[in-house]
Q: What sequence folds into this?
Protein backbone atom coordinates (compact mmCIF):
# COMPACT_ATOMS: atom_id res chain seq x y z
CA UNK A 1 0.00 0.00 0.00
CA UNK A 2 1.33 3.46 -0.86
CA UNK A 3 2.10 6.13 1.77
CA UNK A 4 -0.74 8.24 0.35
CA UNK A 5 -3.26 5.43 0.77
CA UNK A 6 -2.41 4.99 4.44
CA UNK A 7 -2.54 8.70 5.33
CA UNK A 8 -5.91 9.85 6.61
CA UNK A 9 -7.41 13.17 5.65
CA UNK A 10 -6.78 16.16 7.86
CA UNK A 11 -9.73 16.82 10.14
CA UNK A 12 -10.05 20.51 10.97
CA UNK A 13 -12.40 22.47 13.18
CA UNK A 14 -13.20 26.01 12.04
CA UNK A 15 -14.23 27.94 15.13
CA UNK A 16 -15.86 31.33 15.67
CA UNK A 17 -15.03 32.49 19.17
CA UNK A 18 -16.75 34.77 21.62
CA UNK A 19 -19.18 37.47 20.64
CA UNK A 20 -18.04 37.72 17.03
CA UNK A 21 -21.05 37.22 14.80
CA UNK A 22 -19.23 37.68 11.49
CA UNK A 23 -18.84 34.28 9.88
CA UNK A 24 -18.46 34.96 6.15
CA UNK A 25 -14.68 34.47 6.26
CA UNK A 26 -15.00 31.33 8.37
CA UNK A 27 -17.46 29.88 5.88
CA UNK A 28 -15.08 30.67 3.00
CA UNK A 29 -12.37 28.80 4.92
CA UNK A 30 -14.68 25.81 5.47
CA UNK A 31 -15.25 25.52 1.75
CA UNK A 32 -11.57 26.00 0.87
CA UNK A 33 -10.49 23.36 3.38
CA UNK A 34 -13.12 20.94 2.09
CA UNK A 35 -12.04 21.58 -1.50
CA UNK A 36 -8.44 20.88 -0.42
CA UNK A 37 -9.53 17.42 0.74
CA UNK A 38 -9.86 18.09 4.46
CA UNK A 39 -12.69 16.89 6.65
CA UNK A 40 -14.25 20.08 8.05
CA UNK A 41 -16.23 20.69 11.22
CA UNK A 42 -17.73 24.13 11.88
CA UNK A 43 -18.38 25.28 15.45
CA UNK A 44 -21.06 27.78 14.57
CA UNK A 45 -21.11 31.25 16.08
CA UNK A 46 -20.30 32.28 19.64
CA UNK A 47 -18.22 29.25 20.66
CA UNK A 48 -16.35 29.29 23.97
CA UNK A 49 -12.79 27.97 24.37
CA UNK A 50 -14.22 25.12 26.46
CA UNK A 51 -16.71 24.20 23.73
CA UNK A 52 -13.96 24.28 21.10
CA UNK A 53 -11.76 22.00 23.19
CA UNK A 54 -14.67 19.59 23.70
CA UNK A 55 -15.35 19.44 19.95
CA UNK A 56 -11.66 18.78 19.25
CA UNK A 57 -11.62 16.03 21.87
CA UNK A 58 -14.86 14.42 20.67
CA UNK A 59 -14.02 14.62 16.97
CA UNK A 60 -10.28 13.82 17.29
CA UNK A 61 -9.46 16.85 15.14
CA UNK A 62 -5.94 17.42 13.81
CA UNK A 63 -6.22 21.21 13.68
CA UNK A 64 -8.39 24.12 14.68
CA UNK A 65 -8.67 27.36 12.73
CA UNK A 66 -9.73 30.10 15.14
CA UNK A 67 -11.42 33.11 13.57
CA UNK A 68 -11.99 36.35 15.42
CA UNK A 69 -12.66 39.88 14.25
CA UNK A 70 -13.60 41.67 17.47
CA UNK A 71 -10.16 42.23 19.00
CA UNK A 72 -10.32 39.60 21.76
CA UNK A 73 -7.71 37.35 20.15
CA UNK A 74 -5.08 37.92 22.87
CA UNK A 75 -7.56 36.66 25.46
CA UNK A 76 -9.51 33.94 23.66
CA UNK A 77 -6.93 32.28 21.39
CA UNK A 78 -4.51 31.49 24.27
CA UNK A 79 -7.45 30.28 26.35
CA UNK A 80 -8.20 27.66 23.68
CA UNK A 81 -4.59 26.44 23.89
CA UNK A 82 -4.85 26.35 27.69
CA UNK A 83 -8.08 24.32 27.70
CA UNK A 84 -6.55 21.85 25.23
CA UNK A 85 -3.50 21.41 27.48
CA UNK A 86 -5.76 20.92 30.50
CA UNK A 87 -7.41 18.02 28.63
CA UNK A 88 -3.98 16.60 27.77
CA UNK A 89 -4.39 17.40 24.08
CA UNK A 90 -1.04 18.51 22.69
CA UNK A 91 -1.12 17.15 19.15
CA UNK A 92 -3.52 19.66 17.59
CA UNK A 93 -2.35 22.51 15.37
CA UNK A 94 -3.92 25.77 16.57
CA UNK A 95 -4.14 28.39 13.82
CA UNK A 96 -5.33 31.95 14.32
CA UNK A 97 -6.93 34.31 11.87
CA UNK A 98 -8.87 37.53 11.68
CA UNK A 99 -8.05 41.14 12.35
CA UNK A 100 -4.80 40.69 14.28
CA UNK A 101 -2.32 43.57 14.58
CA UNK A 102 1.28 42.69 13.67
CA UNK A 103 2.39 43.64 17.21
CA UNK A 104 0.12 40.93 18.68
CA UNK A 105 1.37 38.07 16.51
CA UNK A 106 4.55 37.27 18.50
CA UNK A 107 2.53 36.96 21.72
CA UNK A 108 0.07 34.60 20.04
CA UNK A 109 2.90 32.50 18.59
CA UNK A 110 4.47 32.28 22.06
CA UNK A 111 1.11 31.06 23.40
CA UNK A 112 1.02 28.29 20.79
CA UNK A 113 -1.21 29.90 18.16
CA UNK A 114 0.35 29.64 14.70
CA UNK A 115 -0.30 31.43 11.43
CA UNK A 116 -2.31 34.39 12.70
CA UNK A 117 -3.44 35.23 9.22
CA UNK A 118 -5.13 38.50 8.36
CA UNK A 119 -7.58 39.64 5.71
CA UNK A 120 -6.34 39.09 2.19
CA UNK A 121 -4.12 36.10 2.99
CA UNK A 122 -4.27 33.71 0.03
CA UNK A 123 -6.24 30.58 0.89
CA UNK A 124 -3.39 28.48 -0.50
CA UNK A 125 -1.03 30.00 2.12
CA UNK A 126 -3.38 29.00 4.94
CA UNK A 127 -3.93 25.51 3.51
CA UNK A 128 -0.18 24.97 3.08
CA UNK A 129 0.43 26.12 6.68
CA UNK A 130 -2.14 23.65 8.01
CA UNK A 131 -0.97 20.76 5.84
CA UNK A 132 2.64 21.30 6.85
CA UNK A 133 1.86 21.81 10.56
CA UNK A 134 -0.33 18.72 10.81
CA UNK A 135 2.28 16.67 8.97
CA UNK A 136 4.93 17.72 11.50
CA UNK A 137 2.65 16.91 14.45
CA UNK A 138 1.86 13.46 13.03
CA UNK A 139 5.59 12.64 12.94
CA UNK A 140 6.07 13.42 16.64
A:
Amino acid sequence: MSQKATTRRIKILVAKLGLDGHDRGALVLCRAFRDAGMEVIYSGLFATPERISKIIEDEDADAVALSLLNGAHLTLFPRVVKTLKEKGIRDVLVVGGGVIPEDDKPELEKAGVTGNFGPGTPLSTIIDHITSGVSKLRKI
In short: The chain is about 45% helix and 20% strand. The longest strand covers residues 11-16. The two ends are 22 Å apart (CA to CA). The helical segments are 3-6, 24-35, 49-59, 73-86, 105-110, 123-139.
